[in-house]
Amino acid sequence: MSEQVLLKASRFTVNAMTITDKDGNAVMREVIRHGGAVVILPILADGSVVMIDNYRRSVDQTLLELPAGTIETGESPDSTAPRELIEETGYRAGTMTKVHEFFSCPGICDELMHLYVATDLVEGAPDRETTEQMENHVVSGDQVRELISTGKIRDAKTLIGLYWYLANR
Question: Which of 61, 100, 125, 157 has the highest CB neighbour count under 10 A?
């Protein structure tokens, strides 16, 4: 198996991967190489979840999501999670615990996402990037199940985090 970089972007590369099929033929497949990301499940003392209404240009929709972000070069997931929580929501966590990791879309991408639960939260001002269009949206524990069952949550990382929440609350 060999790979060639087709596109180098700021947060990922697109590579052409040459693999051998079951008949011994060389076949090219494209794959996205990504340094990984974190997703944070911020839970307030009353069991409510801090989420964000996040406008996503790629789908031209505002999605209700858990806060998340890309791991920067040389940064660990453990340091990315609190940074992203503050940047996107303004909340600071007294406790940040990694509970799971998963591949976001393994059919085409190697992005590994690290799920953290943030508790003992203290509210503050977000430090959002100038291109980010998001607002905090606090959801009660009872609303989580309804948002999932009615299809209001369409973001995979958020579904995974909220299913973890429902299974462990």
Answer: 157
Report percent pLDDT > 70 for the chain.
Answer: 100
Distance CA 157, CA 69 (A): 11
For 128, what's the count of Cα atoms within 13 Å in the CB-facing half-sphere?
A: 16
Closest by CA position to 99, among listed 74, 72, 77: 77
pTM: 0.91
Measure CA 65 to chain center. Answer: 9
The Cα 64–Cα 53 span in angstroms is 5
Pick the CATH number of 35-168 from 3.40.50.970, 3.40.50.2300, 3.30.1360.70, 3.90.79.10: 3.90.79.10
d(CA 70, CA 91): 18
